[in-house]
Design goal:
118 residues; mainly alpha; 6 helices; 50% helix
């Protein structure tokens, strides 16, 4: 990869900009270094830091899914919203919930049938 280390770290699920900067600060690796230019000890240091202090990838995805499953099981408002595939975080649904509900736009025409031309 030819990206800067701080950007490349963000490709890992569960690590954002703030976490990436924190990781680089604790490992004393400059953010400007490219991934291809990392030395083996630096790469190992990064790997150990991420494994030690952060939940990432599969483990984090499992935790998120189990949290959602728990909300569904106890029948909370948020759980019910998840079950019905509606926005969970208080957004309006009369309009603007296309992402969650699917991009299906049902609009009525004028009501008049168009005559077929023969």
């Amino acid at each position: 990869m030819n990206k800067r280390v701080d950007v490349a770290l963000q490709y890992i699920y569960g690590i954002g900009l703030t976490s990436a900067k924190k990781i680089l600060k604790t490992t004393a690796i400059p953010a400007e270094v490219r991934v291809k230019d990392l030395t083996e000890p630096q790469a190992n240091k990064l790997r150990e830091e991420v494994e030690k202090k952060y939940k990432v990838e599969g483990e984090l995805r499992r935790e998120v899914l189990s949290n959602i499953k728990r909300l569904k099981e106890i029948g909370s408002y948020r759980g019910i919203r998840h079950i019905r595939n509606l926005p969970v975080r208080g957004q309006r649904t009369k309009t603007n919930s296309r992402t969650v509900r699917g991009n299906v736009r049902k609009t009525m025409g004028s009501g008049k049938r168009k005559l077929e031309k023969t």
